[in-house]
Amino acid sequence: MGKTGYIVAMKISAIRGVKDILPDEIVRVQQLEDTARRLFERFGYSEIRIPIFEVTELFTRGIGTTTDIVEKEMYTFEDRDGKKLTLRPEGTASVVRAYIEHQMYLQKPVTKLYYLGPMFRHERPQAGRFRQFYQIGIEALGTSSAAMDVEILAVLIWLLQEADVTGIQLELNSLGDSVCRPQYRKALKSFLKDNLHKLCEECQKRYETNPLRILDCKNESCRAVTAAAPSPLDHLCQDCLAHFEQVKSGLDQLKIPFVINQRLVRGLDYYNRTAFEVTTGRLGAQNSIAGGGRYDGLTEELGGPPTPGIGFAMGVERIASLMKPVEPPKPDFFFALLGEEALKQMLPVIMQLRREGLRIEIDYGGGNLKKQMGLSDKLGARYTLILGENELKSGKAILRNMTTKEQQELVLSTLSQTLKSLVKP
Ligand code: HAM
């Protein structure tokens, strides 16, 4: 038994790699979400809410069986009906599944969607890397125009700018398509062949399954081997090269700075042509704050009509940690009510004012004036209204401006109007 007479139960903590977003941090997340919604809507993107879990096959087929996500990171389980399900590790596969399922391609030539919500990956947790994390993403399906690549990149960069995130870099690459990528893959493999023993164990496996990923391995010896590797850009076919040139000149036209990173291959297999990441030097190892690219084969791969697509997703926690602190909203008034009668008479007034949009705090526990003033101060209220038996008798309450410390008397019969005029001039 504990001191209070309750049985002392064992404390339960959140799972490793999964965190609570507390009120101080959520204000930044909300600001990012609000900014994103406003910007996306201006560009014609509508929200879609995709399920948190899907049949496992959606992700194995969509993301690719030899990717780290599918091989090692998915939260997969059987439900009570024996169905194999997975907590979504990303949103693109689900958006495309929904696009096909609801035959959105019949409604408009180009479908533009955005989503936000939690994703799940069983990665090794560390600063900035979680097992449940939030993404905000957009997808545009139905056009292979390079102008759409530019639009997607512009939305991403301008969203980060509007959220006041500084110190970022847009990295760009082209991964070619089904015409030129097989040739590049061959060229890369023949370059790596003689140095296989110098690659890390993981990359030795990748040599057979997913050789392009060797390019973005962080291991020093792998990087040394690939330093002189052939570049995907030197192997682009005519069409892919022209597309890449258009994307670059579109970004130049909009004055969106970027750097070419020929090692950028992304961890999901559905990409072709444009691939990109936004990185920052301010977050240590987890330096990628957003990523995306073109996925012209994904809709067909998932059983839909051939439909080009492109999109991005950003890591909300990582971006929130780069944003300037946002002050949580403060109360307009704190009502310091002294005695039962004051509480009884003021409660309907407080409730009505709250319904009309005023932020009002009150301490139902009561207590003396000093205690209540202390609480008002702590909560950061703009004004404190003091009302006890004497004030009830005289028909006047005391209003204290918490910044200037000035006090004035307010007539109770017109209290609501006076308080409203103070905060909503
Ligand atoms: P991704 O690069 O795997 O792409 O994830 C996008 C962003 O999510 C990353 O840049 C990072 O900021 C954040 N993120 C990823 N894993 C974690 C983690 N374990 N903890 C915290 N943040 C994380 C995608 O998911 C693609 N679906 C993007 C896309 C949309 N491509 C086309 N359309």
In this entry the ligands are: histidyl-adenosine monophosphate
Strand count? 16
Helix content: 25-40%
CATH class of the largest domain: Alpha Beta
Total domains: 2
Mean pLDDT: 95
Query: What ranges have pLDDT less than 50 throughout 5 or more consecutive residues?
Result: none
CATH homologous superfamily identity of the largest domain = Bira Bifunctional Protein, Domain 2
Strand content: 15-25%
Report on the architecture of this protein.
There is one protein chain. The chain is an alpha+beta fold. It folds into two domains: 23-180 and 236-322, 2-Layer Sandwich (BirA Bifunctional Protein, domain 2); 333-420, Rossmann fold, CATH 3.40.50.800. Helices cover 37% and strands 21% of the residues. The chain contains 15 helices and 16 strands. The strands form three sheets. The protein has an eight-stranded mixed beta sheet, sandwiched between helices. Strands 13-12-14-15-16 form a five-stranded mixed beta sheet, sandwiched between helices. Helix 1 runs antiparallel to helix 5, helix 1 (23-42) crosses helix 11 (316-322) and helix 5 (146-162) packs parallel to helix 9. It is elongated.
Protein traits:
15 helices, eight-stranded mixed sheet, single chain, five-stranded mixed sheet, binds histidyl-adenosine monophosphate, 2 domains, elongated, BirA Bifunctional Protein, domain 2, Rossmann fold, 425 residues, alpha+beta
